């Protein structure tokens, strides 16, 4: 059965309510009441019978100051009770609210109040103490099974900090002026060195690497990753901010404006093709029964007949001719075009039009291509080099202006190519680095006139350059452990430490609830890691291309490409439509504008406002009523975008896609009828089409047509024919080595302490050189006489050599 079109809108994050609910596991539900009890126990003596929402702002500030003072006590249990009371305030004092809207309102009010009173700085000190708590780490290492109880303090602190970061990050129309100012101050505070001279994100990265090295297996990784992602998203900016920064950067470099807004173009796209008709499905089944023997007997088909056949149904799907690689691929892709070698069996006589599909759905061609074509300088140079060799017999190097001796059609072609010429920021940066390499003393590094977010990104890379590879490997280890296709191993990382209860379930209903919670837990980890990696790659690429390249090379060397392909080597439709929650009726009542948000009866804030209904095995198995799970589709698109960024213009990495047989895996992903996801799948298929052979291209003509229709065109790019001179396998290793050499030159010039050591001026003055104080080791005077005899007196000195000409 074919999937319907998915009404999915891609963005930086899901709705605020969904993002807040994903912070908590279902096994943490009893702690909501615990937070409330500790708050009411302390608040009762202060408020004298009044409720929190009835207090004046000055009284609320006085009580928060009292909590802040209580955080400094030495008793660990008392600190935990105070932290739970603060968490209850950040959760919106839900026991005093009647609706989820009220909970979100008071949560926002309380969080800005907490930040104004300096709660975040106090929490940061407590968090650093818990990270350095060697006793808790050694106790967790010795434990055979780790549960929620081992990370109670960390979970409470991280929950408060996540609620503060996420709530302050999101802007609303009714924000007060003081809240807007507080947002900017908090953003700058997170980007500045808060703890030990490092930004807050680096402290969270330290927790990730410490967890993956098995030194702190009790760390709640889901909360750490969510907080790390939202911190970087807040400090550096999301996708729309990146687009604005890119436009400003191009203006600063005097480059032409972007031909279109990529975000708007992708959102306006429509998913490819409606379901196949019943007759087509019957024909495909008959074709599979005939087997391979009948295929060998069939004669080859002429191209004009094949074109006639292809034009019969412009939305007909590709047949997966990759049975040798994946037998499940026969119904994949922009679904199943019939093999051209069996054409005479099917199209004689031609079938009537499908009665089940209205004509308005069949004929729906766009008025024009969605993307403006682009041409690089390299493409123009290659075209002129080929033309000059053909018509003149010699070349002129990189000269793209001289057209003497070339026929008139070549002049017109060059004019057309130059009209669509696109110069990227990366090309300007690479050219700048080449100039810096030639003149390292007279030219200065480009550190002036940068956006504030780009400066913070630059400083962030500056402080993490030497140790960024272990952090990337740690993220990939967590992604591997959370992937649904991964098998549990004894030496693998346990990412379920903050979801497993102390007492394992004893009933079927409890087991089903825990199973749903575990799957949901893994999905949220995949979502956070994929969004975090994509965000870092995009910011590094905008900041400087070689920062992006070194991060990309670390990911490639850490087997990120096969890991992502392994992730997609599953029933991707089942993963995207995973129902790990039951949608709430109250969610639709209180949030009618968000019919697809996955707020369920077990999710916050619904579970703390309304009475919990009686859950049954049938209701848990039924799951969500929506067509798809937002976070899973978001994760898939992010992983595809990461794969595109790693392989774009890198032929050696494209060959990795071919070697790992990614074509049938990616074609199965085309079943998901969402335009943005299909676009990035088609991009990955396009770059490897030239390596897949003529037979694959012949049997996947509708995929080729979809690539032509949806993916940006590069003029003179014969991706569909495999005639590119860059497709030579012996150049692949040299390509990576040359890139590595450029990266090392960039790193030594920007981050090496002894940069430009070969060009340091030499002091030629004898008096100043002899007057310099030389630090000698402490024991040198004991062996001074022996050294003088060995190095001075026993060495013959030929003084007459000074009088001779050199």
Automatic annotation (TrEMBL):
Residues 3-307 form the Far11/STRP N-terminal domain. Residues 309-319 have a biased composition (Basic and acidic residues). Residues 348-358 have a biased composition (Pro residues). One of its GO terms (cellular component) is cytosol. Residues 274-288 have a biased composition (Low complexity). InterPro entries: Far11/STRP, Far11/STRP_C, Far11/STRP_N. Residues 320-339 have a biased composition (Acidic residues). One of its GO terms (biological process) is cytoskeleton organization. Residues 274-360 are annotated as: Disordered. Residues 407-784 form the Far11/STRP C-terminal domain. Belongs to the STRIP family. This is Striatin interacting protein 2.
